[in-house]
Amino acid sequence: MHKAYLILENGTVFEGKSFGAEGEAVGEIVFTTAMTGYLETLTDPSYYGQIVVQTFPLIGNYGVIPSDFESDCPHVKGYIVKQWCQEPSNFRCEGDLDIFLRKNGIVGLYDIDTRHLTRIVREHGVMNGKIATSYDGTVPEEIKGYTIVDAVKNTTCDKEEVFSPEGEVKRRVVLYDFGAKANICRCLVNRGCEVTVVPAYTKAERVKEIAPDGIMLSNGPGDPAENTEIIEELKKIAELKLPTFGICLGHQLLALAHGAKTEKLKYGHRGANQPCKEIATGRVYITSQNHGYAVINDSLPDGAEVSFVNANDGTCEGVCYTDEPAFSVQFHPEACGGPLDTGFLFDRFVELMDENKNV
């Protein structure tokens, strides 16, 4: 492996070694604290445009398992780990991490102090950086000018696709793909739903033609406020009064469509150990999260109430709409590999659809 460098926007430099694809990569540096699920992280479209740092020191120990992917390919700009396992061991393993990254053109960096790097991001906030093959003592201009744009446009599907359960179709759902994780669809199909996945820019008129029992708004990458065209369409979707469930970016876009505002967090919430408190019950759940923006609690309009808050910083983690059959959460109830604490929210969505059909 060759010597490589991570150059941060603030001038900090880490010297390490390269793995994965050859070359250089510029992106937004973010960290995730998840101890497992590195394959889901790599293939989660929500990481579009970002260089991901794994805080857990050993990555790749169970190899590459395609059935665990959240999308067809990785969406990260680069990948940073303390140590990668060169000899993975798992009965489901179909390859190793280095070859997987090379095949998909993802530049990797290892053998740096990821704990130190994480502390920098936590103290100074998310910043841009570059995985480089050389360093001349200066911060490249391309780092300072980097910004993530057209994230949803570059991760959404390009045509409709229908997924059906093996048994009886009990209800039909339209799933808006803003960069959807595959397990959202699986969770719905496993509950007897026929799921029509539609591109992010699908018009409300098309949804009316499909005539679903409910609407699912998926996760996705980027600044939610950038998606003005989608937000305007979601205002029309809300007028249909169909049961609606939003996750992550879908949660943010639904709030924006109702007049709320969003803000960028200092370093975001990324990992599988984020505690969230449900306001109605006082119960705290451990959740999986991956987002850099949040709905501003006090910006919610009449008819919308905060339903979950992050137990660490009090930010909005869920909204319940009291004048229509809709709710949303910032975290991931469909998380693989876990935690599975909030999977019951899919059951709530199913119940909401069944109640609405019987009205």
* Relative helix content: 10-25%
Low-confidence parts: none
Structural class: alpha/beta
Report the strand count: 19
Q: Give the count of structural domains.
A: 2
How far the N terminus sits from the C terminus, by CA atoms, comes to 64 Å
* Sheet with most strands: 10 strands, mixed
Name the helix and strand elements from N-terminus to C-terminus, one letter apiece.
EEEHEEEEHEHEHEEHEHEHEHEEEEEH
Per CATH, the superfamily of the largest domain is Class I glutamine amidotransferase (GATase) domain
CATH topology of the largest domain: Rossmann fold
Inertia-based shape: globular
Computed over alpha carbons, the radius of gyration is: 20 Å
Secondary-structure arrangement, i.e. CATH architecture of the largest domain: 3-Layer(aba) Sandwich
What proportion strand? 25-35%
- Could you name the CATH class of the largest domain? Alpha Beta
Give the number of helices.
9
* Arrangement of strands in the largest sheet: 10-12-11-13-14-19-18-17-15-16
| Average of the residue pLDDT scores | 96
Provide structural commentary.
With 359 residues, the protein is of the alpha/beta class. It has 2 domains: 3-144, Carbamoyl-phosphate synthase small subunit, N-terminal domain (Glucose Oxidase, domain 1); 161-357, 3-Layer(aba) Sandwich (Rossmann fold). The protein contains 9 helices and 19 strands. The chain has helices spanning 38-43, 97-103, 114-124, 141-144, 182-189, 204-210, 228-239, 249-257, 344-357; strands at 3-8, 13-20, 25-32, 50-54, 58-59, 78-80, 83-84, 107-110, 127-132, 161-163, 171-177, 193-199, 214-217, 244-247, 262-278, 284-295, 304-310, 316-321, 326-329. Strand 18 (316-321) and strand 19 form a beta hairpin. Helix 7 crosses helix 8. The longest helix has 14 residues, at 344-357. The model has no long low-confidence stretch (mean pLDDT 96).
